[in-house]
Amino acid sequence: MMNSTGPAVSVRDLRVTRGRREVLHGLTFEVPRGQITGLLGPSGCGKTTLIRSIVGVQVVAGGEVTVLGQPAGSPALRRTIGYSTQNPAIYRDLSVRENLRYFAAVLGAPKDDVDRVLEEVGLTPYQRQLGGTLSGGQLSRASLAVSLLGSPELLLLDEPTVGLDPVLRKELWELFQGLAERGTTVLVTSHVMDEAARCQRLLILREGEILADDTPRALRERTRTLDMEEAFLRLIEERQAA
């Protein structure tokens, strides 16, 4: 049984190195439960490395990552975390339904979960198509469907809307909001600053450091701007002037 109190994710002094270069510099933050937290920042700032550290598949140089009360990577977390990578993680020679049935069996998810997640991501009409014949947007939705199997307590989504058209992006964000309303904790990465307004809390990352950890409203007030991209630039100016 997962710890139901405290933050969904707690990170303390997390450091990650690649070769001789440190890419995450002593990060400390918490992700509250039952909300959408956006992890925003430009490409190459360390978002994916941080997500991998939370999942427990990233070798870390120092610090602690606690997820739902357990050390990151603990076997007990496997059925309580959904993880959608940037690259669609499905088999191209299986149909969408066959992929979902396979991953549901691996996760021990209920059989009727396949129909549920197909409906949630809007892929029911395409369930018989082979993975290799799907469009980029359909592949992204299929990968998201896999991460939703088993109704995870924590959903980690790495750039789930990249390359998608505005209508589909809007539909996916509505899905994320519905999941959060039902108690799922959603941590979503993006380099698109206008998606920040859809989150209840923001972690803004640049060059392996956290520039800000606050609500969108508080960040706009702090930087005296309504535009999140402009707010990001002002946060950089603040850091450089400090």
- Biggest sheet, in brief? 6 strands, mixed
Using only C-alpha atoms, the radius of gyration works out to: 18 Å
**Beta strands, count:** 10
Quickly name the level 1 CATH class.
Answer: Alpha Beta
- Spans of at least 5 consecutive residues whose pLDDT stays below 50 are none
Shape: globular
Strand content: 25-35%
CATH topology: Rossmann fold
In the sheet with the most strands, the strands line up as 6-7-8-3-9-10
Q: Helical region count?
A: 7
Structural class: alpha/beta
What is the CATH architecture descriptor?
3-Layer(aba) Sandwich
Order of helices and strands: EEEHEEEHHHEHEEEHH
The averaged pLDDT comes out at 90
CATH H-level homologous superfamily name:
P-loop containing nucleotide triphosphate hydrolases
Would you mind describing this structure in some detail?
The protein is an alpha/beta fold. The chain has a single domain (33-56, 75-241), classed as P-loop containing nucleotide triphosphate hydrolases (Rossmann fold, 3-Layer(aba) Sandwich), CATH 3.40.50. It contains seven helices and ten strands. The strands form two sheets. It has a six-stranded mixed beta sheet, sandwiched between helices. It has a four-stranded antiparallel beta sheet with strand order 2-1-4-5, covered by helices on one side. The longest helix has 16 residues, at 166-181.
